[in-house]
Amino acid sequence: MKTVAEYEKELRSLAMPLWGRVLHHLGKPVAEHGATVREFWHLLRAVLIRLPRRPWRRHEIAISVVHIGIGSMPIITIATAFAGLVVTNEIAWHMREALGTISMIPGFTAQFILRELGIAIPALLLTAKVGASITAEVGTMKVTEQIDALRLLGIDPVDYLVFPRFVASVFATACLTLFAVAVTMGCAISVAIVRYNFSILEYLNAVRHFIGLADIVCALVKGMVFGGIIPIISCAYGFRCKPGAEGVGTATTNAVVASTIAIILLDFVLTYLFSLVL
Predict the structure, then answer these.
(1) End-to-end CA distance of the chain
(2) HSE on the CB side for 232, CA within 13 Å?
(3) 3-state secondary structure 194-237
(4) CA-based angle 83:84:90, to the nearest 5?
(5) Where in the chain are the domains?
(6) pLDDT score at 138
(7) In whole angstroms, what is the distance from residue 206 CA to residue 101 CA?
(8) How far is Cα 29 from Cα 123, in angstroms, rounded to an integer?
(9) What percent of the chain shows pLDDT beyond 90?
């Protein structure tokens, strides 16, 4: 049953002209997302300020590393393994159709995996798995007033909730990026050997001419940036979660969507910057 206040609000909305109702429905989500963006920058600034400080909450960081890193290895292994199989077959087919040869499979495959595939897939999977988990956890704490209780006890929520997850996510994502690249490359090599009659030495010798230390450094930098963005966005939406189960669900969905878009945009920006520097 609706309350009196809800009835009054509904009557006011009906009395509002059409253009006013349209602006209201368009402006309200924009204002909410704008407030979340401000929350994101506030959390990012607060976390970066705390990086030089000691001591860190090592116990919470270790727990988060296990949750983010080890807990995500099975799904990343499965996804990147099949990605390596698919990308090798696709590149081989296109090279055979366009160039009439498959001799460049190792170089093109290694570059694509090390620069994009082995980095983007783990980041997007972590967004769906870890980002949703962090938002739901922080949002539930917000709804049940546990964050207010932390403040009453003199505990900074950023120190207790955001900072350990940020550090753990950066470290775990960097490790998972290298792991995903290794798994994807291993599967790509397997397809090249079994189906296209490459030898291991021939494949590795061809790869050596296409990738170097700079590519590995770029992959690590991208992984660390993506790993730092996910918990900040997730916590920002969690801190601004609305009451009720619907509020937690909406905040979780918005956090996953925002993190996915941020990763795609940052991937483009970082790739462009690396192309200018290297």
Answers:
(1) 64
(2) 23
(3) HHHCCCHHHHHHHHHCCCCHHHHHHHHHHHHHHHHHHHHHHHHH
(4) 85
(5) 30-277
(6) 92
(7) 15
(8) 27
(9) 35
